[in-house]
Each structure stands twice: as structure tokens, then as C-alpha cells.
Amino acid sequence: MPKLPHLSGAEIIRALEHLGFVRTRQKGSHVIMRRGESGCVVPLHREVKTGTLAGLLRQAGVTPEEFVKIL
């Protein structure tokens, strides 16, 4: 498993959009992204912690290797 980088919420959203996710809605500082039946909630913070990013990728059904490759 590759080491996940420290990224901002906007950078994570851009990467997920490259993977086919679409913004469905936003409530406050959290954006809900969907791709088919799977989805995830991305916090729009300056820096998202690696543990939060790992949980977000698990929720979205995206492997860390696939995510890092897109960056």
C-alpha cells in the first residue's frame, strides 16, 4: 500500500472527478461525491489528514494505489 500524501479537499475532489465521480451536493464544508452506487464525503479543508483520506477512499471503493496513480 503506497503512502498517502497530504492533500487539500479541492485536490481530492479533482482526483476523484478524474476517476469518474461527480459532485452531487454540498452542505457546509463537505462535498458529497458519487459514482454509480458508491459515494463518499470529502471535507473541503486546507489539509485532509491521511487517515481521513484512507477512510474516504475505503468509503468510495477506490484503492490507494489507484488514487495515487491518478495524482
Task: Report what the structure shows.
The chain is α+β, with helices and mostly antiparallel strands and 71 residues long. It has three helices and three strands; from the N terminus they run αβββαα. The chain has a three-stranded antiparallel beta sheet. β1 and β2 form a beta hairpin. The longest helix has 11 residues.
- Taken in chain order, the helices and strands follow as HEEEHH
Query: What's the alpha carbon Rg, rounded to whole Å?
Result: 11 Å
Q: How large a portion of the residues is in β-strands, by DSSP E? A: 25-35%
Main sheet makeup: 3 strands, antiparallel
Q: Percent range for helical residues?
A: 25-40%
Low-confidence residue ranges: none
- Mean pLDDT reading: 95
DSSP summary, beta strand count? 3
Helix/strand class: alpha+beta
Q: Outline of this structure?
A:
With 71 residues, this protein is α+β, with helices and mostly antiparallel strands. The chain contains three helices and three strands; from the N terminus they run αβββαα. 39% of the residues lie in helices and 25% in strands.
Strand-helix topology:
Blueprint (H helix, E strand, L loop, with lengths): L8 H10 L3 E6 L2 E6 L2 E6 L6 H11 L3 H7 L1
Supply the key terms.
single chain; about 70 residues; alpha+beta; 3 helices
